[in-house]
Amino acid sequence: GGDSGATGGGGGGGDDKITMGFSQVGAESGWRTANTKSIQESAKEAGVELKFSDAQQKQENQIKALRSYIQQKVDVIAFSPVVVSGWDTVLKEAKDAKIPVILTDRAVDSADKTLYKTFLGSDFVEEGKKAGQWLVEQYKDSKDTVNIVELQGNTGAAPAIDRKKGFGEVIAADPKFKIIASQPGDFTRAKGKEVMEAFLKSNPKIDVLFAHNDDMGLGAIEAIEGAGKTPGKDIKIITIDAVHDGMQALADGKINYIVECSPLLGTQLMDLAKKVVKGEQVPERVVTEETTFTPEQAKQALPDRKY
Ligand code: GZL
């Protein structure tokens, strides 16, 4: 194959077949497994040679994976950073090795924007705002205090920081909304259930649960039912993602509203990767298209959902 030129890392094989090193956060949620499936299927369709690693939600494992991709001289690196900070050193190593990097799903807080070519993923602040807007609308005619508990994603993750920010900004408009407890549930069902059990024990009056993803909401539903309360009625539940099991709970009335966060980033990622390896210009930010769902809309959408 021809010379890989300034942008590529001298990857394998012929001119058009590129090699991508991908570091995935883990397999913590339904969203994550759907995202992994999208990336692996899209790589096959695009004829991209994919080296894939699962970091089990540990940053040090992602850094190790990125270093191994640099060693292997892949043509392009893509990853979903489990947390926003601590990436500058390894991203500089990739830059020095002339291997372009694409951020997907989650962002990093590096001040140096030349450390990556583009960030493909959702606007998490917007997702948090949509969740808050639904709540404000639901309680617009009520004067009573609304006691909210919040299950956050893993500490330091872009979606956890930004969803909390967007939601908080919107409900700050009316002092009747009170977040009486807010803890990380790490985006998993198990932790979501465990933290919700603690919330229920220490807060006699909980009106609303805002969970940063469906999986924590589903875990919380188990805790709420275990406490003899009815999810969706005694405690209103808002979640983010719209994966199958969340949409089923929404259709069943156990969740009241879901803000979609699409995991289907694979096709766009492979297109961006091919452009970047060729040294073509790409937008520095590609925002995912996504919507929201009520129980009625979930019933309509469920039969056609891919995940
Ligand atoms: C959001 C993604 C989050 C999902 C969770 O793009 O990073 O991580 O909302 C997943 O379900 O674990």
TrEMBL record:
It is found in: Cell envelope. GO terms for molecular function: carbohydrate binding. GO terms for cellular component: cell envelope. Gene3D superfamilies: 3.40.50.2300. The keyword Aminoacyl-tRNA synthetase does not apply. CDD domains: PBP1_galactofuranose_YtfQ-like. This is LacI family transcriptional regulator.
